[in-house]
Amino acid sequence: MNPLEGSDPILDCAAAGAFERGHFGGDEAREWAAMRRAGVAVADALVRDLQVLGITPRQPGRVLLLVGKGHNGGDALLAGARLIEQTAWSIEVGFVFGQNQLRPLASAAWRELQHKGGSARVAAVRCSALSGPQFLAVLDGVFGFQYRPPLPPPAVAWFGAVGAVAVRFRGSVDLPSGLNESGAFVADATYATGIFKTPLLDCAGAGRLRYLDLGFFDENASGDQRILKDAVLDPLREPRPARCDKRSFGQLAVVGGSRSYPGAVGLSVAAALRSGVGNVTAFVPESQASAFAARWPEAMWVGCPETEEGHLAMEAGLDIRRQLQRATALLIGPGLGREPETLALVAELIGDSEIPLVLDADALQPDLVQRGQAPRILTPHAGEYARLNLAQGPPPFPGVIVRKGPITRIEQAGIRYHAVEGGPVLARGGSGDMLAGLIGGRLAANPHAVTTAAAQGAFWHGRAARLLAEQEGEVAVRISALLDHLQPALRAEATG
User: Measured between alpha carbons, how far is 49 from 246 in angstroms, rounded to an integer?
Assistant: First the structure.
C-alpha cells in the first residue's frame, strides 16, 4: 500500500545516517545549504514556541546556544544568526568542547553569527560564568543522532550549569542531547530537522515535538512508520469546483448526545461544520434538539425518542435509518452514554451500516466496534485503546485506528502515521469530541479515503491547537476556541 501524500518516513538513527550520506554524497555545499535551512526553521519554530509564553520577538532578552562540534552545533549557530535578524534578543554561545573543536561547517556558522550580531549582540561564554538575568531560551545543539553514551564530563557540566540558572524555555535541535540517559538535556520542545528519528517517539525529555521538513524526501519515500506534515492539508487549500452544491461535499450524520453529556455532541457538530462537509444532520434526544438548533442552526437537528434517563431510545432507529439514505458517513458516540437500550440501538446501526463510520467515546465498546462490514475509523484515547485490546494485533474489522495522545497515531494496514502538532493545550475535555467531528466531516466529504480523512482530521486539529496556544497561551483558554483557528491553519502563513 502506498503511503499517504503529506507524510515522510520516520527513520532510526542508523538509517538516518545512511540516508544523509547518500543524499549529500559528501558535498559540503549541499550540506551547508541544508544547514542554513535548518537554522532558519529552528529559529522560527523557537520564536513561535516562545509566543505561547507571551514572549515577543521585539522584547529584549537573552538566548543561550549550547554548541557541540558538528552539524547540530552548526544548526544552532545558524538559528542564532536568524534570531539576530528577526528579534531584539542577544545571543550567548557556550562551546561545550571548546571553540577550536568546531568542524568546518560549524565553524563557518559561528563566523556567520558573529558577522550578523557583532560584539554588541553575540558573545561566547564559559560554563562557570553563567549568570545574570533570566534566559528567554536555551537551545541545545550539542549532540546529534550519532551520539553514543555515556555523556562526556564537559556536557554534564554544561547541562548542570544550565539547570542552575533561570530559563523560560529549553529547546533541542534534532534530538535532546543524551536522550533518556541520566543527566541528559531535558527539552520543552525538540526541533526534528529534516528527518524525524525514532528515538523521539519514546524520549521522555523531548517535550513538544516539531517536525521541520527540509525537503529531503520525495512522495515515493517508503517506510511503515511515518510523520504527518503540513502537506496533508493541501487538498483543502485548493479552489472548490465552480459548479457544485452542498451534495458535492457529502453529508455527515451524527448520532449522540444525552441528558448526562449534552455538550459533547454539540462540539462534534461544531467541528464538523468547519470541516468542509456539505451538510450535517445530528440525531439527538428530542429534549435537546431545540437548544442545539438555536446555537448551531447550520446543522439539521433531529429530535429522537429518548429514555426516561434522557438517552436515545431504541425507537430512534426508525428516524435515523430513514435519514441515513442521504448520508455519506456516520459518526456515532459523542455524549452518547452507556445506557443498555442506547447501546443496543448503536449495535444495530453499526451492524446495518453501508456507509463508512467514525466510532468515538461510548461507541468504543468491544462488542460494538466489530459489528458489520462498513469501513470505520475508531478514535480511542489510551484507556479505550486498552479496553478494546487493540495492542494485541490487527483489528478484526476493516478500518483505521486514531489513537489519541501527546502523539496521535493513525494505524492502518501495518502503517503507522504520527501527528505531533497540538501539544498540552489539547489536554482538555471536549478536545476529542471536536477531533471526531473533523474526522467525520472529512470522511463524509471523501468516503472512499478513510485513512486520509483520519490523517487530515488529526493533523488539522493539532495545527489549529498550536495556533490557539500561540495566540492565547496554554492555560486560560476554552477548547472551543480551537474552532476559530481551523481556517487560519489552512493559510500559507500559518504553516511551518
Answer: 38
* SS3 of residue 385 by DSSP: helix
Q: How confident is the model at residue 494 (pLDDT cuts 50, 70, 90)?
A: very low
As a whole number of angstroms, the distance between CA 494 and CA 340 comes to: 45
In this prediction, what percent of the chain has a pLDDT beyond 90?
92
Helix (H) or strand (E) holding 67: strand 61-67
- Phi first, then psi: what are they for 364, rounded to 5°? -90, 70
Mean residue pLDDT of the chain comes to 95
The pLDDT confidence band at residue 495, using thresholds 50, 70 and 90, is very low
Query: Average pLDDT in the 206-224 region?
Result: 94
The angle subtended at Cα 435 by Cα 433 and Cα 436, nearest 5°, is 65
Taking Cα atoms as reference points, which of 380, 359, 421, 376 lies closest to residue 232?
421
- Angle at Cα 320 formed by Cα 318 and Cα 321, nearest 5°? 70
Cα–Cα distance, 106 to 103 (Å, whole number):
5
- What average pLDDT score do residues 97-123 get? 97
> Judging by DSSP bridges, how do beta strands 329-332 and 357-359 pair with one another?
parallel
Q: Kindly list the strands in the beta sheet with 61-67, ordered across the sheet, starting from the edge strand earlier in the chain.
A: 122-124, 89-95, 61-67, 135-141, 167-173, 189-193, 208-212
Cell of 27: 558535498
Domain segments of the chain: what residues?
Answer: 7-231, 245-494
CA distance 350 to 333: 11
Nearest alpha carbon to residue 281 among 333, 324, 244: 324
The tens digit of pLDDT for each residue in 373-429 reads 999 999 999 999 999 988 777 777 878 999 999 999 999 988 999 999 999 999 999
- As assigned by CATH, the class of the 7-231 domain is alpha beta
SS3 41: helix
Q: In CATH, what class is 245-494?
A: alpha beta
DSSP assignments along 238-275, one per residue:
SPPPSS--GGGG-EEEEE---SS-HHHHHHHHHHHHTT
Nearest 5°: phi and psi at 56? -100, 155
pLDDT of residue 492: 54
Hunting for cell 438517552 — which residue is that?
311
